[in-house]
Specification:
Chain lengths: 112, 115
């Protein structure tokens, strides 16, 4: 069974810092990997989708990389802002099924 | 365009009652997924539909849980004889199709509390 781990579990940084969130997965046979943002009381917002054949995806201040062979992905957030405060979830779509397998998330707090 | 919608947003029910949770996917999306999320955890898969066909129900915890999507659009997740351990956020997602290229888009969820 695919296991997804996110490190750190929580992170607090001052505004303006660049930061990296880490995700690792145990089975490299994947279709794709998605990064989501979760705000309290709201749904999950898809940030980036990386196909298994890709190495990275960028959207604005966000950059996600994928190293499928080592089972790792990172989400890089540049010039962090207080509005970036949320929980960030990594989810892997394995070849063996239809479901996304999620990590427990990284809770990010960006202080002014 | 409209995203995935779920109703009700909040449901409080007494132990032993049945509940029905509704999901309306993005128009044109043929794939629909149900997940359950406990506090402090990531969502966990419950079941998957391709059009009206339930193709994977391996994540349903027991036979009190069932789901349907009779016309290939709106889906209902039903929990019979609810128990306190059923309390969680229930999330629905849809995608244009199954397969490697398609993002899953999530609704706001239904917060179920069983008292």
């Amino acid at each position: 069974k695919q296991e997804v781990t996110q490190i750190p579990a929580a992170l607090s940084v001052p505004e303006g810092e660049n930061l990296v969130l880490n995700c690792s997965f145990t089975d490299s046979a994947i279709y794709n990997l998605q990064w989501f943002r979760q705000d309290p009381g709201k749904g999950l917002t898809s940030l980036l989708l990386i196909q298994s054949s890709q190495r990275e995806q960028t959207s604005g201040r966000l950059n996600a990389s994928l190293d499928k062979s080592s089972g790792r992905s990172t989400l890089y957030i540049a010039a962090s802002q207080p509005g970036d405060s949320a929980t960030y979830l990594c989810a892997v779509h394995s070849n063996s099924g239809y479901a996304l397998n999620f990590g427990k998330g990284t809770s990010l707090l960006v202080t002014p | 365009g409209a995203g995935v919608s779920q109703s009700p947003r909040y449901k409080v029910t007494k132990r032993g009652q049945d509940v029905a949770l509704r999901c309306d996917p993005i128009s044109g999306h043929v794939s629909l997924y149900w997940y359950r999320q406990a506090l402090g955890q990531g969502p966990e898969f419950l079941t998957y539909f391709n059009y009206e066909a339930q193709q994977d129900k391996s994540g349903l915890p027991n036979d009190r849980f069932s789901a349907e999507r009779p016309e290939g659009s709106i889906s209902t997740l039903t929990i019979q004889r609810t128990e306190q351990r059923d309390s969680a956020m229930y999330r629905c997602a849809s995608s244009r199709a199954s397969g490697d290229s398609y993002e899953q888009y999530f609704g706001p969820g239904t917060r179920l509390t069983v008292t």
